[in-house]
Amino acid sequence: MNENLNFIENIKPEDIEKRSFEIIGDELGKRGIVLPEEYSHIIKRCIHTSADFDYAETMYFSPEVLDRIMGALKSGATIITDTKMAQSGINKKKLNELGVEVSCYISDEDVASQSKERGLTRSFVSMEKALGIEGPVIFAIGNAPTALLSIVEMYNNGVLQPAAVIGVPVGFVNVVESKELLIDSGIPCIVNKGRKGGSNIAACIVNAIQYNM
Amino acid sequence: MNENLNFIENIKPEDIEKRSFEIIGDELGKRGIVLPEEYSHIIKRCIHTSADFDYAETMYFSPEVLDRIMGALKSGATIITDTKMAQSGINKKKLNELGVEVSCYISDEDVASQSKERGLTRSFVSMEKALGIEGPVIFAIGNAPTALLSIVEMYNNGVLQPAAVIGVPVGFVNVVESKELLIDSGIPCIVNKGRKGGSNIAACIVNAIQYNM
User: Fold this and answer.
1) Of B50, B152, B175, the CB nearest to A198
2) N or C end of chain A: which has fewer CB within 10 A?
3) Calpha distance A116→A197 (Å, rounded)
4) What is the tens place of the pLDDT at every residue in B37-67?
5) A200 with B19: Cβ contact below 8 A
6) DSSP per position, B10-30
């Protein structure tokens, strides 16, 4: 490399992630934060993805949600995301081996036309395509609170029983409320309470879980 | 919708984003933050994407960088990202009309093999494929500091003249340093100083610029 780059810490490509997680662990220690051991790999990966230590304080895990997600992945679940970005950020290598498909219906033509007709978001309508899926379904929602509303509505109506929902939409309109609704629904879920989240966070939670299996 | 959802603010799909930006504007006002007018649409969209008001204080824009980026987009530039997630998050509709292509070489086989041979990250090597591109190149880097190192090295060696670099990698190892290196290089750039950034932020900056053209 160029001599101008000498002040950069010299580190092998394969060691960068390990070093990052060490730094995250050190900083959590300095802040006096002890993560719940069962979930620390997930919370640390959210911090790794965002460089935002708020995630150490705001993540919620419903009882046994990890067992449910890992069980569903092992039996070839379908993961449904609300954005192409989340779909794209999920590492497919191991999932392919497990027979897990990662789907996103947000750009489907029937979703667009129904959304217009019914005055609902495309995110809301795209979740309803889960009803046609055989086998367990895991939702990974990083963008749209209306996607969570759609899932909870189908669950409350008794037509959908998700294996689990990763509910980490981000933003300012109905985001906080949709996450509370999900938690209160009784659906097994992982949520980042508050406004923060994102497609990258939804993807990284799925990755954290599969890398630990 | 189900009656359980009644406490959610009732808002039309097409108004959600507008309402979000109003809330962001209000909160910036309450915090006494006045954004530079020329860049406020970009900074607000970063906050919209992350729900993180830190972006109001840490974004850097080199002189005339927006003119350069808009000029390049109008003349059919290629946008190169360091992740499939950033590539996927960039809205293609208007870019297609402008003849702009959005490319990401991170998963290319020759990138993987060279990366192994040379002991460099795939991100570093994937940037070198820009050298084969005709016409202006804009980089949108949301993940890998080594991608920025690669770009700066090619620039310093006189072989690459990017139209601009959106340099918002996220993380803990060499991230802060790589951004400072980019700023000091003299390459026209948009940077979020510090550790924060991400593929979603890289994509949203491209989107903020094109939506305002």
Assistant:
1) B50
2) C
3) 27
4) 999 999 999 999 999 999 999 999 999 999 9
5) no
6) ---GGGHHHHHHHHHHHHHHH
Q: In this complex, do A9 and B177 lie within 8 Å of one another by their Cβ atoms?
A: yes
Distance from the B61 Cα atom to the nearest Cα atom in chain A, whole angstroms: 21
- Distance (Å, whole) CA A103 – CA A87: 7
Pairing of strands A164-167, A189-192: parallel
**What residues in B contact A83, CB-CB < 8 Å?**
89
A5 and B156 Cβ atoms separated by less than 8 Å: no
- Residue B110 buriedness (CB in 10 A; 0-12 / 13-18 / 19+): exposed
pLDDT higher than threshold 50 for residue B3: no
B176-198 pLDDT per residue, tens? 999 999 999 999 999 999 999 99
For testing contact with chain B, the best of A3, A12, A46, A85 (most B CBs within 10 A): A85
- Neighbour tally for B29: CB within 10 Å: 10
Q: Residue A48: name the closest of B183, B199, B68 by CA.
A: B199
- B48, B129, B193, B195: the active-site residue: B48
Give the ipTM of the model, two decimals please: 0.94
Over residues A88-139, the pLDDT tens digits come to: 999 999 999 999 999 999 999 999 999 999 999 999 999 999 998 999 999 9
Confidence of residue A4 (pLDDT cuts 50, 70, 90): very low
d(CA B191, CA B188): 10
Q: How far apart are CA B110 and CA B41, in angstroms?
A: 38
Q: Residue A189 region, left (φ>0) first, then alpha (ψ -120 to 50), else beta?
A: beta
Instruction: For residue A47, give every residue at least 6 positions away whose Cβ sits within 8 Å of its Cβ, in sequence order, or none.
Output: A24, A53, A55, A56
